[in-house]
From TrEMBL:
Keywords: Methyltransferase, S-adenosyl-L-methionine, Transferase. This is Leucine carboxyl methyltransferase 1. Transmembrane segments: none annotated. It is an enzyme of class 2 (transferase). PANTHER family: LEUCINE CARBOXYL METHYLTRANSFERASE, LEUCINE CARBOXYL METHYLTRANSFERASE 1. It comes from Patella caerulea. One of its GO terms (cellular component) is cytosol. Methylates the carboxyl group of the C-terminal leucine residue of protein phosphatase 2A catalytic subunits to form alpha-leucine ester residues. GO terms for molecular function: protein C-terminal leucine carboxyl O-methyltransferase activity. InterPro entries: LCMT1, Ppm1/Ppm2/Tcmp, SAM-dependent_MTases_sf.
Length: 316
């Protein structure tokens, strides 16, 4: 697995990028500024549009899952970092029965500190009838949980999910944003299979690199190496087919995948027109090249046939 410190640094970078894009007006998130301090770096328009497409497409799939289950479901965010999805779902009255975030203990410790020290974050997770249990790296409330764990340690993961009160019998969606790529492919396959073996009704949303065998992909890999950050799981990112196969060969009924160029074109076009007015872009080809090296993958297994195969990016 990639060095813990280097992977944690990528979380900080991603959070800074999201805050920057929010401040530029790409989407509304009143909580990201409470999680991460304002950075000094300027981010190019193609980066901001990429984060917009990433955040928006994941939100569409997640909200469709929650609505399909009438909120009688669970969300497990793998490598959640400083993600603010729980608070935004709360504002939208789409809170699931359980929302669990998992990351390295140094990340969850800092997030717990942010939450307990900032009322807008803390107030959203408090319940008059229940106390919040807080340790250095874990937080447990009525329906929101943060736990520190290493995703390759399945025994530890199992223990932490049990401590969070996860019910394996109800529909559960797992979210992963550029997380599995830092784990050796055989170990991420074991994680994917473990989830499939333990959750009969499950949905998995994975945002990650793709088409990494060309020159652009190699430059991306080399740039991360200079930061002591190695993409040990990049073999699964060879193509859309390999991205889907990692699920279908490990117990999932079916999977779909789209390059981010196609995802971008699936998003509400009124919103696309709005965000494209926020910043001028000199070379659209650079954005399209970048987008061709990221993808959105979703997989499902649906023992009770509740309709998970119907979830996609369509606007119906």
């Amino acid at each position: 697995m990639a060095s813990e410190e280097a992977v944690i640094a990528t979380n900080d970078d991603a959070a800074q990028c999201k805050r920057y894009a929010v401040e530029k007006g790409y989407w509304v998130d009143p909580y990201i500024s409470l999680m991460i301090s304002k950075g000094t770096a300027h981010h190019a328009p193609e980066i901001n549009r990429g984060y917009y497409a990433r955040i928006t497409s994941i939100r569409i799939l997640l909200e469709k899952f929650i609505r399909l289950t009438n909120r009688k479901c669970q969300v497990v965010n793998l490598g959640a970092g400083y993600d603010t999805t729980f608070w935004k779902l709360k504002d939208a009255h789409l809170t699931p029965e359980k929302f669990v975030e998992i990351d390295f203990a140094p990340v969850t410790s800092r997030k717990c500190h942010h939450i307990k020290s900032k009322r807008p974050l803390l107030d959203k997770i408090t319940n008059e009838d229940e106390d919040i249990m807080l340790s250095q790296s874990d937080l447990h409330s009525a329906n929101y949980h943060i736990v520190g764990a290493n995703l390759v340690d399945l025994a530890e993961l199992d223990k932490k999910l049990q401590q969070s009160g996860i019910d394996r019998s109800i529909p559960t969606v797992f979210i992963s944003e550029c997380v599995l790529v830092y784990i050796e492919a055989n170990k991420s396959a074991k994680l994917i299979k473990w989830i499939s073996d333990n959750f009969p009704t499950a949905f998995f949303i994975n945002y990650e690199q793709v088409n990494m065998g060309d020159r652009f992909g190699q430059v991306m890999i080399d740039n991360l190496k200079t930061r002591d950050c190695y993409l040990y799981g990049v073999s699964a990112c060879d193509s859309l087919q390999s991205q889907m196969q990692r699920f279908t060969s490990n117990g999932w009924r079916d999977a779909d995948a789209l390059e981010m160029n196609k995802v971008y074109n699936c998003l509400p076009q009124s919103e696309i027109k709005r965000i494209e007015k926020l910043e001028l872009m000199d070379e659209r080809e650079l954005m399209e090249q970048l987008f061709s090296h990221y993808c959105l993958v979703w997989a499902y297994k649906d023992v009770n046939n509740i309709g998970l195969e119907e979830i996609d990016l369509s606007q119906s």
